[in-house]
Specification:
The chain has helices spanning 8-21, 43-49, 58-66, 70-88, 106-109, 124-137, 158-164, 185-195, 212-215, 223-232, 246-251, 263-271, 293-301; strands at residues 95-99, 117-122, 145-149, 172-176, 203-209, 255-262, 284-291. With 302 residues, it is an alpha/beta fold. The longest helix is centred in the N-terminal third of the chain and has 19 residues, at 70-88. The protein is globular. The relative contact order is 0.14. The protein binds S-adenosylmethionine. S-adenosylmethionine is lined by residues 1, 7, 9-10, 13, 100-104, 122-123, 126, 151-153, 177-179, 182-183.
């Protein structure tokens, strides 16, 4: 990330969610009304253009043409994550920990969230911007949300999370969306090990990139421009793993893999037939793992 600036990729995700939210009811995959409030120039302008009749379709078409698969992948995964969190958070005592929250608005828009303690953990630069925007955008201060500012690459989560009131004995849902690919392997390792100390049965949903895209980007559609754009905003891809190595990697860290899907699959789940024409970003994957030593050991023995 650029020194002193909020994450630009977090803002781009907010743009994709804004565009999806401005589609007609019944056709959009979700409605994220807060997403728009996080946009700065020129992305505000892009969002406004998409409201102009005639340009409504052109804006997403242009984005998909320049950066194939990125927008559709973010939109489909947003809905998948909304569905997964909504289905798994039940008891009022549950905790939701959003690691690298960026401009994620789930704490403010998903049903039942106000009964859940939500921890938004993020880099200080991005979090400061988010908190400033929320101060104006929300009618009242959200008492169910606790903010933790940290750099995953610099320090572990132990003391900061304990100070914020996080409890290891409460069933927790950890969401780590769009972040692991920007970290060091040591930070990924430490964070996974920290998550695995949570109450057994807790769930972790995280995204990651197939390591081949780091080693041989030219084998994937659209990576040349995508990587150049990421370089420009100081958010290069740094970490990935081969999907076949993921179960053992997680088992070593006390987690058992429950599912692992690539962008083609999760796009098809939500965009149905239209997904067949979507290309690019196939290396971007969503994994769900469960905390629990026994489950992890079984998966390692397989
Ligand atoms: C692509 S954005 C994803 C934001 C959000 N989770 C989403 O899916 O829209 C990447 C997020 O990771 C955070 N991030 C990147 N590197 C980080 C680091 N070393 N420590 C803490 N947060 C980091 C950024 O601040 C940003 O919020």
């Amino acid at each position: 990330m650029r020194e002193g600036y909020a994450s630009r990729t977090a803002e781009q995700n907010a743009l994709f969610r804004t565009l999806e939210s401005s589609r007609p009811e019944g056709r959009r995959l979700f409605e994220d009304r807060l997403a728009r409030t996080f946009l700065t120039w020129p992305l505000t302008l892009v969002a406004r253009l998409a409201l102009v009749p005639g340009l409504r379709r052109f804006v997403p078409w242009y984005i998909d043409h320049r950066w194939p698969g990125v927008r559709s992948s973010v939109v489909a995964r947003t809905r998948l994550i909304d569905d997964t969190i909504t289905a798994s958070l039940g008891a009022p005592t549950d905790q939701l920990v959003i690691l690298g929250a960026g401009f994620d608005s789930r704490a403010y828009r998903l049903p039942g969230m106000r009964r859940t303690t939500v921890f938004e953990v993020d880099h200080p630069n991005t979090q400061a911007t988010k908190r400033r925007v929320l101060e104006h955008a929300l009618l009242a201060e959200p008492t169910h949300v606790r903010f933790v500012a940290t750099d995953f690459n610099q320090r572990g989560l132990d003391s900061a999370m304990a100070a914020a009131g996080y409890s290891e004995s409460v069933r927790t849902f950890f969401l780590w969306e769009g972040v692991t690919n920007y970290l060091t392997e040591a930070a990924v390792d430490a964070t996974l090990r920290w998550c695995s100390r949570a109450s057994p049965g807790s769930l972790l949903l995280f995204t990651y990139v197939h390591s081949n895209v780091l080693a041989r980007p030219s084998e994937f559609i659209g990576t040349e421009r995508l990587f150049a754009s990421l370089e420009k905003v100081g958010e290069r891809l740094t970490w990935g793993i081969e999907p076949k190595k993921l179960p053992a990697f997680l088992a070593e860290r006390g987690l058992s893999l429950e599912s692992d899907v690539g962008a083609s699959e999760y796009r098809e789940r939500y965009f149905k037939d239209a997904a067949r024409k979507m290309r690019g970003h196939e290396f971007y994957r969503i994994a769900i793992a469960r905390v629990g030593k026994h489950a992890a050991q079984r998966s390692a023995e397989r």
